[in-house]
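Standup notes, protein team

Yesterday: finished cleaning the Tachuris rubrigastra set.
Today: VANG1 protein structure.
Blockers: none.

Input for VANG1 protein:
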Amino acid sequence: MSAAMDTESTYSGYSHYSGHSKKAHRQGRDRHKSPRSKDGSRSEKSVTIQTPPAEPLLGNDASRAEEGQDDNWGETTTAITGTSEHSISQEDIARISKDLEDSVGLDCKRYLGLTVAAVLGLLVFLTPIAFILLPQILWRDDLEPCGTVCEGLFISVAFKLLILLIGTWALFFRQPKADLPRVFVFRALLLVLIFLFVFSYWLFYGVRILDSKDTNYQGIVQYAVSLVDALLFIHYLAIVLLELRQLQPMFTVKVVRSTDGESRYYSLGHLSIQRAALVVLENYYRDFTVYNPALLTASKSRAAKHMAGLKVYNVDGPGNNASGQSRAMIAAAARRRDSSHNELYYEEADHERRVKKRRARLVVAVEEAFTHIKRLQAEEQQKAPGEMMDPREAAQAIFPSMARALQKYLRTTRQQQYHSMESILQHLSFCITNNMTPKAFLERYLNPGPTLQYDRDRWFSKQWTLVSEEAVTSGLQDGIVFVLKCLDFSLVVNVKKIPFIKLSEEFIDPKSHKFVLRLQSETSV
C-alpha cells in the first residue's frame, strides 16, 4: 500500500471540490505518507508501472469501495489514484518468450503457405502462354501456318485466362481473418491437384511436342486451350468445396461462456472443428456482451464476508490441529446458510435501487446538456462563420455538466474500465456531429454492448487456444465438445446434429366443408 501511493492524481474534468474535500485530501495524503518512511526498503525493490495517459474514467479500486458509499459521497470526497505494483518472475519471462516463439512460428507458416500458393498460381497462368510461345521461339520456320481457326483460339485463350484470373483473385486472394492451428484440408488438396495437373500437362508437352518438334501449330494451341478449360473446371470445384458445401445448415452448436453462463445458439454446415471455432469466435465478438470480471466479484466478496464473520475458539488447547478448525467453520457456515438468501435479496434490491436512481440522474443531466447544445447552436448561427465551434469544442463545453452523473453510474454498474475520458468525448462529439438525441448517446452506457463496441485495449480476449479431443481438421459430428480458452475465461461449444424431419401430407376433401342449413317452418314469431 505504501509503494502504491507514490503518485497522486485527480480528474480535473469534473466540478470543483469544496474546502472540506481539500482538507480530507491533505489528511489522507499525510496518513498515507507516514507508513512510507517505515518501509522504505520495500519501495526500492518494487517495480512500478506508470498509469497510461488514456486511463479509464474511474479506477478499478472504485468498484470495491462502492458498497460502503452513500449517494452523496462525490460532493465531499477527493478521488485519489496511484501507481500499481507488479513483480515478474522467471516463469513469466519464460512464458512470454515461449509466446513470442509461437507467434514467430505462426507467421513463418502463414507466409510459407502464401508463398507456395503464389508461386503455384503464377505457374498456372504462365503455362498456357508458354505452350503457345515455345514453338514460335524454338522451331518457328518449321511450323505450319496458323489459319483463321487458330487465330480465333488465341482470343479464346486470352478471355478464359482473364476470367480465371478474376475468379482466382475473388476466391483465394483475401486478407486472412485468423491464424488456424492446422492447414485447411480442402485448400491443400486443391493445391496438390493443381500441381499434379499442371505437372502432367508439362510432362506430356515435353515428350510429345518439344522432343518431336511437332509442326501442327493449331494442335499445339488447341492443347493450351484444353489446359485452360481444365483449370476453369478446377476453379468451379474449388467454389463448391470452399464456399457452397458449408452453406446448408447441418449442425446446431451451443456456445456457453464459462464465467457467467451466457449462451448463444448457431447453425453451421459441414465444417472442420478449427473452422467451426473460427465462426464461433466471429459471432462471439458480435453477439455476446463484453466480458466484465468486476460483475463476478460480488459473490466472492459475499462469501468472504460470511467467512470473515466466523470466529473459531480453540478450547482443547494448542494441541488441536487446523482440520478441526476448518470443520468448525464449515459447520458454522452451514448453520448460517438459511439466512444468507435474505442478505442476498436485500443486497440485490439495494443495488437495483442505486442503479435506477443514478440512471435517472444521468438521463436528466444528459438531457439538460443536449438542451444547452441546441441553445448554443441557435446562438452560433447568428455569429460569423469564423467564430463557430466545432463538435469537439462543443463536447468539451458540455461534458463537465454530465461528468459526475456518468461517473457515478459507471461505477455503480462496474463499467468504468471500458470507458476512458477520451472515448466518451469522441462519442459525444460524434453524436453532436450527426445531430443525435440524448437517448442515442446514452445507449452505449446504459446497456452493455458487444465486445466489438469497445477499444481493443479493453478486451479481455485477444488470443485463443482450441482444446479438442478430436483432430481439429476433422469434420463436425453429433456430440462433439470443444473448448476455446483465453486468459480469463473459456467458451464451451457443444455440437448437436439437426434432426431429420419427416413431413407427411393429409388430403382434405373440398366437399367435406359443405353443409346444409335446415330452417323450421314453424317459429314462435
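Follow-up from PR in the comments: Residues 1-56, 58-98 have pLDDT under 50 and may be disordered.
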